Amino acid sequence: MNWLLVAAGAAVGAPLRYLADRAVQARHDSVFPWGTFAVNAAACLLLGLLTGAVLAGAASEGWQLLLGTGLCGALSTYSTFSYETLRLAERRRCGPAAANAAGSVLVGFGAVALGSQAAAGLWG
């Protein structure tokens, strides 16, 4: 049954990632991959909030599988982030490539921490 929860979450997360990425990127005339950056940050925030809720007993392990592993796993994308960063570097856009690499890690970490702290405030 656990794998069905993961699959159901991923079935929503993958198309959501694509649609959100396209919507964000369409609003920016920039070489920077804002769409991927935004969906990865959102997934980190949601994962931090969800994990904090599970640790506080406010959400079940089933929710962790459905939303954490499934939805957030499919919503966020390390491979696309890596590919887009490589493409920027190959095109000699070293500033945006470095900003994407460093910014994605820092914002992702900050979003997880913020989500976790919000969960602690709500349910801790």
Short description:
It contains 5 helices and no strands.
Key words describing this protein structure:
5 helices, 124 residues, mainly alpha
Largest sheet: none
Give the helices and strands as they follow along the chain.
HHHHH
Number of helical segments with 4 or more residues: 5
Low-confidence stretches: none
The chain-level mean pLDDT equals 97
Portion in beta strands? under 5%
Please compute the radius of gyration using only Cα atoms: 16 Å
| Percent helix | over 70%
The strand count comes to: 0
- Output the structural class: mainly alpha
Shape: globular
- Intertermini distance: 29 Å
Report on the structure:
This protein is mostly helical. Helix content is 85%, strand content 0%. It is built from 5 helices and no strands. The longest helix is centred in the C-terminal third of the chain and has 30 residues. It is globular. The model has no long low-confidence stretch (mean pLDDT 97).
What's the topology here?
Blueprint: H1 2-26, H2 34-55, H3 61-75, H4 78-90, H5 94-123
